[in-house]
Amino acid sequence: MTRLSFNHATAKFWDQGEVIEACAREGIGIGLWREPVAEYGIDRTIAKLKETGVPVTTLCRGGFFTTGGRESIEDNRRAIDEARALGTKVLVLVSGGLPEGSRDIDGARAKVADALAELAPYAGDAGVTLAIEPLHPMFASDRCVVSTLDQALDLAAPFPAAQVGAAVDTYHIWWDPNLYAAIARAGTEGRIATFQVADWTTPLPAGVLTGRGQLGTGCVEMRRIKAAVDAAGYDGPIEVELFNDELWARPGREVFAETVAAYEEHVG
Amino acid sequence: MTRLSFNHATAKFWDQGEVIEACAREGIGIGLWREPVAEYGIDRTIAKLKETGVPVTTLCRGGFFTTGGRESIEDNRRAIDEARALGTKVLVLVSGGLPEGSRDIDGARAKVADALAELAPYAGDAGVTLAIEPLHPMFASDRCVVSTLDQALDLAAPFPAAQVGAAVDTYHIWWDPNLYAAIARAGTEGRIATFQVADWTTPLPAGVLTGRGQLGTGCVEMRRIKAAVDAAGYDGPIEVELFNDELWARPGREVFAETVAAYEEHVG
Question: Do the record's keywords include Cell membrane (chains A, B) (predicted)?
């Protein structure tokens, strides 16, 4: 049985219903996003998942605690409800960056810890694990003040592993001198909630958000990192999540087929 | 006495002789680059420095060990000779990224360690400290496989501090969850060879090389980091080094004056 899951963001502009059908034909899972779920309709999404039998490996995404105030807590409760309704055990969290004009990165990180304390029990009751995703340090100011896997694990530490874990995404952490120790630690602590893969390519595009490379096109040691994640005891789905303008400009079914093939060649 | 030093790269296209004169008028030091030194003429540069009394706080830069082979060792010996001739005690090293087509980041890091072992005694004999500069992880694949201050300190550890130290540059390490512990460690180990400042602003430009912000325009906690570097026992020059297309497009003397004022307001 393949562990591959296709994250909808990889073919962002492809109709969600068609992506689910493609995943069903391929016999793989899917990573969903809240906005397309809402657009397609959550009940309709649930019906489509039931009809096709496609498992939802993660829901993306909650978080943005640092800039959202009280409203972000309420919104994250709704995200947890949606994750449960969609039948996934994992809600991916991107913490948020610095508030406009702020330089207080420690303060922002403290807000993330506070938000987790509010949300963790609620997530646990829903059977959903909050997966703190460290984002590459190039996003530290504007998207995510959590920059390393160790930091995510430190934030998760006060909570049961069923409530709070970490997202291991090759794109964001491949460069970390402490990577393999951190992956082993994540395994020991039972915190690997999801494993996502994307390759690192340069030059980065302006804004750096949409430069994630197709598997095999960059410098990430995919098999080595996968072996480390396996050795850490994680045997769950492996999601391909690529934010890439060039992929997004192409037909979804073509990108889907290419991604499945690239996964088999470079990861699976 | 001001600790400010103006790195020539901040006004990259301004004639080196004019930059030295501006530094003399302001009573500050200068950070030089090998290429403009060669273009201006090293003997002529030395004469100009003598005439004006401007101290050279660093020479930028050696390194690129990962992609340069034997030739890079020879080139770095020449860089050490140039540093001594210019009267600076610090040669800044950017390690280099991954060789074309390579995914072996551990191998590249090992090459950096090997190159340091060859060069450190030669640098020590010349009275020059090799300052390993961790670059922001967004440069890990194409410019520098050394991404954190701790990693630079680990690489420096086998050598006397007079031979190998680290460059502390706010732009590259401000995001590090372990920043303040690493700065304290660098001080304890006597390894702070130079302190450089630049601000972090977004959105990053394509290629991400030329987006360093003028002091005060971004989110780096300048005074806090400076206080930590001071507390770690470093009392040497503070260099402003900005790679910024917008600054480079403006007249050098205007950028110089703006930079001196920004330093006084946000750092000094």
Answer: no
pLDDT digits 0-9 by tens, B210-245: 999 999 999 999 999 999 999 999 999 999 999 999
- Give Cα A63 distance to the centre of its chain: 11
Task: Report whether A216 contacts A260 (CB < 8 A).
Answer: no
In this prediction, residue B85 carries a pLDDT of 98
**ipTM of this complex:** 0.96
How does the average pLDDT of chain B come out, rounded? 97
Distance CA B182, CA B188 (A): 10
Choose among B102, B173, B180, B168: nearest CA to B141: B102
| Confidence (pLDDT) at B1 | 63
Nearest residue of chain A to residue B149 (CA atoms) = A177
Contact between B12 and B248 (Cβ < 8 Å) = yes
Q: Given pLDDT bands bounded at 50, 70 and 90, which one contains residue A1? A: low
* Three-state SS at A29: strand
How many interchain CB pairs under 8 A, A with B? 89
Q: Which residues of A touch B137 (CB under 8 A)?
A: 136-138, 175-176
The predicted pLDDT at position A69 comes to: 83
Tens-digit pLDDT profile for residues B252-264:
999 999 999 999 9
Q: What is the dihedral of CA A41, A45, A46, A47, to 10 degrees?
A: 100
Q: Do A137 and B176 touch (CB under 8 A)?
A: yes
Out of B177, B204, B218, closest to residue A138 by CB: B204
The closest CB to that of A175, out of B137, B150, B218, belongs to B137
Taken in order of first residue, the domains within chain B and their CATH numbers are 4-266 (3.20.20.150)
For residue A154 the two structure tokens come to 């430190």
**Residue B174 contacts residue B200 (beta carbons within 8 Å):** yes
H helices, E strands: number in chain B: 11, 10
Asked if B177 lies within 8 A of A102 by C-beta distance, the reply is no
Angstroms from B174 CA to nearest CA on chain A: 9
Q: Which three-class secondary structure state does DSSP give residue B212?
A: strand
**Which pLDDT score is estimated for B102?**
97
